[in-house]
Design brief:
With 146 residues, the protein is mostly helical. The chain has one domain. The protein has four helices and no strands.
Length: 146
């Protein structure tokens, strides 16, 4: 379990880093904001990566709960991610209740990024399942099993 948690944390840091850069670029482009300073960027990047890493490392536990349907797991996971991005956005000043468009922008970005990630993940899992099924079928044919 510790090995899996560490692996998930590192994955979270990687995804958090990538998403952070995408969000900064999109937000700066949409808002017409000024240049990003290195000091602020480094602090924001570190904060974003660590929080994302912790969140991804802990959110994988949702998928371990067998009594929940896949749809319920997806809904809970999405809500968890949305809350995470909202908290990170508030902490780093990306969103503010004084700027309602920033809240809407963060929600839209989160939905789009999550949908892209989830689509890719689902396609990957389906391809893996197909490979496993083909290997089982081949093994069964070789052993003359039905």
């Amino acid at each position: 379990m510790l090995k899996k948690t560490i692996k998930q944390f590192l994955l979270g840091v990687t995804l958090g880093s990538t998403l952070f850069v995408i969000i900064v670029i999109v937000t700066q482009f949409i808002s017409g904001g000024g240049p990003v300073t290195i000091n602020n960027f480094a602090l924001e990047a570190t904060t974003s990566m660590v929080l994302s890493g912790v969140a991804v490392a802990s959110s994988f536990l949702i998928w371990e709960i067998e009594r929940l349907s896949e749809l319920m797991k997806l809904i809970i996971h999405f809500a968890f991610v949305l809350v995470l991005f909202f908290v990170v956005g508030l902490l780093l000043g990306w969103i503010s209740f004084d700027r309602p468009w920033s809240v809407a922008n963060m929600v839209i970005q989160t939905v789009v990024i999550y949908a892209i990630y989830w689509t890719g993940f689902t396609m990957h899992e389906k391809a893996e399942a197909k490979k496993i099924n083909e290997a089982l079928k081949k093994r069964n044919e070789e052993q003359n099993l039905p």
